[in-house]
Amino acid sequence: MDRFTIFSLLLLLPLSFFSLSEGGTIGVNYGRIANDLPSASKVVNLLKSNGIDRIKVYDSDPAVLRALANSNIKVTIDLPNEQLRSAATRTSYASVWVLRNVVAYYPRTLIEGIAVGNEVFVDPQNTTTYLVPAMKNIHLALVKYGLDSKIKVSSPIALSALGNSYPSSSGSFRPELVDPVFKPMLEFLRKTGSALMVNAYPIFAYQGNSDVISLDYALFRENPGVVDAGNGFRYLNLFDAQIDAVFAAMSALKYDDIPIVVTETGWPSKGDPMEIGASVENAAAYNGNLVRRILTGGGTPLRPKAELTVFLFALFNENKKPGPTSERNYGLFYPTQKKVYDIPLTVEEVKSWKDVKGSSPAPEVVTPAVSPATGNGGGAGKVTVKETWCVANGEMSESKLQAALDYACGEGQADCHPIQPGSPCFDPNTLEAHASYAFNSFYQKNGRKFGSCDFEGAAFVVSKPPKLSSLLSELLKLS
């Protein structure tokens, strides 16, 4: 029996996290890190008027869940990372959480999924060990209230969870996560009929490797494609290559029957000078072409019949998000509810939508090819990756900065000796200065890979080292 027959048979198994009857489906992430957004009730009207019937939120805010009641909009809610330990170690906590955040609203509010944490493996609070136990306890609570067949449990992972990612056929999870996390998590997903949630951003791969990745390949435009020597498939877009790398990683662990839900993907309409590719035209092309591709059916080269559910990031531009300019410009809409650009969001709109390619060429950059398929490399723009540094976000609370610093110097194994009392870089003796040094040490140690400079918003990448002190700045440059 050849591989294609095997895959066809596997695809006859139940592969839905959500109920998918025809083509793939599109949802949108409703983030709210902003002080100028419309009310939840106005947001619901905006969603309905644009044909959006599926959203994902990053908490379980009562105002949002009440506004969604009787709207027929399906919603995936989130148990935040900071609650993982309590949910993992106390079944009573998980039970009360489900009672208050799910049972209290369902079925008037169509909660269809629970994301337990978000990109937990890069959480500076070191919550990885609590992930699977928390997922299991939340599921047990759903069983208790008779909702386990209607509401599924999973957890979004970033592509930085992959150890190998290029070519797609060689995809594998980071070795240190396989036995303690991925095997039990995938077994849980199999037993509960759930999907693996994946956050995938082709723009990061393009930015980190634009000397070898064409913009057309990243934007689903016509291009010659890339042949994977391992499986013989020709990939015509970067998104498929990223998703198939995750499928291959699951296949390597004998979990071919588990589907994927893409819980985040998007492209910014604006960025800093170093953020190559961030523009209104490119954002419209990426999201518009992606929506067309998903809604008209068809899976990936490795899973050709696996209809995907994809959540675009994000509904609004969020003015309080920390980091580079792009972080505040992923929205499909301005807070005024005006569209940032026009893309189709329904099957009917897809029929008449066209990707209009501009004439302005992308600027040239010089960056090393780390992982062209999935972009597990950092840095971007008109500078080389070696000319980027990781610094602390001074707008973050002291408690979050301190927790991130403790993680970097502890489990993260950053070299924090120079910032100890009496050492050369102890001064300036400020939390932000010490955190910048530790974050940068962690970032450089991990090869400037994407995801190694985040710490849940406590850090971001810059193209110039911060002016903390002459000695500390020089050491940062040498890192």
Automatic annotation (TrEMBL):
<keyword id="KW-1015">Disulfide bond</keyword>
<dbReference type="GO" id="GO:0005886">
    <property type="term" value="C:plasma membrane"/>
</dbReference>
<keyword id="KW-0611">Plant defense</keyword>
<dbReference type="GO" id="GO:0098552">
    <property type="term" value="C:side of membrane"/>
</dbReference>
<dbReference type="InterPro" id="IPR012946">
    <property type="entry name" value="X8"/>
</dbReference>
<keyword id="KW-1003">Cell membrane</keyword>
<feature type="region of interest" description="Disordered">
    <location>
        <begin position="357"/>
        <end position="378"/>
    </location>
</feature>
<keyword id="KW-0472">Membrane</keyword>
<dbReference type="Pfam" id="PF00332">
    <property type="entry name" value="Glyco_hydro_17"/>
</dbReference>
<dbReference type="InterPro" id="IPR017853">
    <property type="entry name" value="GH"/>
</dbReference>
<comment type="similarity">
    <text>Belongs to the glycosyl hydrolase 17 family.</text>
</comment>
<dbReference type="InterPro" id="IPR000490">
    <property type="entry name" value="Glyco_hydro_17"/>
</dbReference>
<dbReference type="GO" id="GO:0009506">
    <property type="term" value="C:plasmodesma"/>
</dbReference>
<dbReference type="GO" id="GO:0042973">
    <property type="term" value="F:glucan endo-1,3-beta-D-glucosidase activity"/>
</dbReference>
<dbReference type="GO" id="GO:0006952">
    <property type="term" value="P:defense response"/>
</dbReference>
<feature type="signal peptide">
    <location>
        <begin position="1"/>
        <end position="23"/>
    </location>
</feature>
<dbReference type="Pfam" id="PF07983">
    <property type="entry name" value="X8"/>
</dbReference>
<dbReference type="GO" id="GO:0005975">
    <property type="term" value="P:carbohydrate metabolic process"/>
</dbReference>
<keyword id="KW-0336">GPI-anchor</keyword>
<keyword id="KW-0378">Hydrolase</keyword>
<keyword id="KW-0449">Lipoprotein</keyword>
<feature type="domain" description="X8">
    <location>
        <begin position="388"/>
        <end position="472"/>
    </location>
</feature>
<protein>
    <recommendedName>
        <fullName>glucan endo-1,3-beta-D-glucosidase</fullName>
        <ecNumber>3.2.1.39</ecNumber>
    </recommendedName>
</protein>
<keyword id="KW-0326">Glycosidase</keyword>
<keyword id="KW-0732">Signal</keyword>
<dbReference type="InterPro" id="IPR044965">
    <property type="entry name" value="Glyco_hydro_17_plant"/>
</dbReference>
<keyword id="KW-0325">Glycoprotein</keyword>
